[in-house]
Amino acid sequence: MPAATDLPRAAAFDLDGTLIDTAPDLGAAANAMLDEMGGRQLDARQLRALIGGGITPLVRRALAAGLDVSEPDPAALALALALFTRFYGESLYERSNVYPGVIETLGALGRSGVPMCCVTNKLSRFALPVLEAAGLGDFLDFTVCADDPADRKPSPNLLFQACA
């Protein structure tokens, strides 16, 4: 075991794509939204490439790809966002899974007394249930979510909140 001086003073982890592979559930919700709107289904590779920056960019990109348009109109985007959030909220952790080694790493850091948190662009209404369903909630001291769009990464606001 490393000496206490070798340990980090604290650790912050991203959620999507770092602690948990959430792409399968995000993709399923995007495809359900596209199906409802008469769009074509996207494969897992296409869907993974669209993820990043939060729900609105994901939905915008998926809608454009699934409807073969360069930019969805505002009414279609609003409907797509409502559908996506409904479908994703109904199946937050059905296909997702914790990456190998995450539980062991969080456990080792916790036993060493390192305070840990999750800093995510995901909305708290999705992030907190996903972390609990994945069995990670008890490892983390707190979670900072981007409920305010101005706080979304790459803005440093969420990290500043975590540090405070």
Quick overview:
This protein has 164 residues and is mainly alpha-helical.
Describe the fold and architecture:
The chain has 164 residues and is mostly helical. It contains seven helices and five strands. It has helices at 23-36, 44-50, 55-67, 74-90, 102-111, 124-133, 157-163, and strands at 11-13, 20-21, 97-98, 116-120, 142-145. Strands 1-4-5 form a three-stranded parallel sheet, sandwiched between helices. It has a two-stranded antiparallel sheet with strand order 2-3. Strand 4 (116-120), helix 6 (124-133) and strand 5 (142-145) form a beta-alpha-beta unit. Helix 1 crosses helix 4 and helix 3 crosses helix 4. The longest helix has 17 residues, at 74-90. It is elongated, with a radius of gyration of 17 Å.
Topology:
Blueprint: E1 11-13, E2 20-21, H1 23-36, H2 44-50, H3 55-67, H4 74-90, E3 97-98, H5 102-111, E4 116-120, H6 124-133, E5 142-145, H7 157-163
Parallel strand pairs: 1-4, 4-5
Antiparallel strand pairs: 2-3
Helix pairs in contact: 1-4, 3-4
Give a quick set of tags describing it.
5 strands; single chain; three-stranded parallel β-sheet; 7 helices; 164 residues
Largest sheet: 3 strands, parallel
Terminal residue distance: 29 Å
If helices are DSSP runs of H or I spanning 4 or more residues, what is the number of helices? 7
Mean pLDDT, to the nearest integer, reads 94
The multimeric state of the shown protein is single chain
